[in-house]
Amino acid sequence: MSEPIETRAEAATDAAPGQGDPAVLEHARLLAADPAGQQAVPLVFALVGAAPYVLGRRGAPVERAVVDALVSAAEALDGRAPEGAGCGHPAHPYAEALAGWGTDADALAGAPSVRTPPDARDAAEACPRNAAGWARIAADVILPGSADGIPEIVPEEHRSNISGLDEVLNDYPNGDPFWELDVHTTPPGDLSRATLAGYVVVVHAACWYAASGRIKRRSLLDDMIKGLESVLPLLPDRPCGHAEGEHPAPFRDSAQQAACGIQLQSPGGRTILREEYEDGFGPSLEAWTCTAYLRELAVEARDHLREAVARLFGAGETAHLDAEPFAARPDEEWTA
Q1: Does position 10 have pLDDT exceeding 80, yes or no?
Q2: What is the pTM of this model?
């Protein structure tokens, strides 16, 4: 008997770029055709499992097809219960995952696996509303802002990072500021759109303090430069389609900018930024994740840090800091 389509779609995570597209597209087609059907929950879990693969297919048709199928399924699965009725579960695992979120790609690894037999799941995990929650989360990871209804849950680690950066960038660090900034110098692996944006926004916010001379260790500046160089190949040097004023305006408050950068790195944080935009405050998530905007920030921060290295430590050799593309694939198209 052939392997179920759901299992093959999830297994596409290990496929080379493009080779998993047929299975994932077929899976998305099946889910879109019957988003509240009997197979909808396992189909959602399979597509969530395929999301790390889809992250590497930015701009390909599979990206849009998966997001549309997941968003449709989320709405349909929530609609299985009468309006205003509960499912009887006090909590669902997807909300717990939001509270413990690390990075987009890593956190998705904790989603339910379609390979788990249905009778091995507890009732809350198998609940259609849990599947709907995971569908929204995965859609948002692939295309930030594409799904409504994600709770404003900012992980404790992210809240701690915001607090620590606020103390350092307002120049009243509680401890050695080196360590507070050092954890943000290296971009995480398997960058989603929003994780990439969050990384660049945070490092740009922190570069002014790092270059001020308050921190005496050159390694911090070198690592920040190296990290920025590593993501520049993912940020093409070409114009975007945004009108003047659509990109985030320059921040007067570096700590506030850093907080936005941290919020970009979790679905719950992105919900906060999205609602601020819908209320008339701040830019859209599309503008936050624009590669043309991010390239400007990355280049400005890198150049400022290079100047600081020469000024603070002497004009030593820095060419070794140029890095190979970070987590990039040769056929991967990164568009604004």
Answers
A1: no
A2: 0.89
Q: Which residue, among 110, 99, 161, 100, has the nearest Cα to 138 in the 3D structure?
A: 110
**Cα 98 to Cα 268: distance, rounded to the nearest angstrom:** 7
Cα torsion 229, 233, 234, 240: sign: positive
Please list the alpha-helical segments (H only) found in the chain. Answer: 5-11, 21-33, 40-55, 61-78, 93-99, 104-108, 123-126, 128-142, 156-169, 177-182, 193-210, 218-231, 254-263, 267-278, 285-288, 291-313
Residue type present at position 92: H
- Reference 162, options 287, 44, 9, 269; nearest CA is 269
Q: How far apart, in whole angstroms, are the C-alpha atoms of residue 308 and residue 199?
A: 20
Contact 37, 8 (CB under 8 A): no
- The three state secondary structure string of 81-104 is CCCCCCCCCCCCHHHHHHHCCCCH
| Rounded Cα gap, residues 245 and 252, in angstroms | 16
Which stretch of DSSP H or E encloses residue 265?
A: none
Rounded Cα distance between 248 and 198, Å, is 13
Tens of pLDDT, residue by residue over 28-85, are 999 999 999 999 999 999 999 999 999 999 999 999 999 999 999 999 998 876 555 6
Assign residue 84 a region (left: φ > 0; alpha: ψ between -120 and 50; beta: otherwise).
left
Q: Give the integer Cα–Cα distance in Å for 17 and 10.
A: 14
208-235: burial string, b at 16+ Cβ within 10 Å, e else: ebbbeeebeeeebbbbbbbbbbbbbbbb
Q: Residue 84, Cβ neighbours under 10 Å: how many?
A: 5
At 177, phi and psi to the nearest 5? -65, -20
Rounded Cα distance, 192 and 289, in Å:
10
3: which DSSP letter? Answer: P
Residue 171 DSSP code: T
Q: How far apart are the first and last CA of the chain?
A: 43
C-alpha–C-alpha distance, residues 295 and 149, integer Å: 30
